[in-house]
């Protein structure tokens, strides 16, 4: 009898999950977050992604690299 070791396949972070949790969080206008969470309206992230706000990030949550790059290029105080 012989045995072999199976390696875990690489997974793509864009695959869907059963728990509906976002794969990464996006930067959106601060004044639109509450409205979206309460009313279910869609927001537009800095990267252009459009979605309703359903979750809030916790410290250490993954951030969209496109949003992060754009956000870091904004001038201080330009939060609206």
TrEMBL record:
Q: What is the protein name stated in its UniProt record?
A: DUF3039 domain-containing protein
Q: Where is this region: Disordered?
A: 1-23
InterPro entries in the cross-refs: DUF3039 (IPR021400)
Q: Which Pfam families match?
A: DUF3039
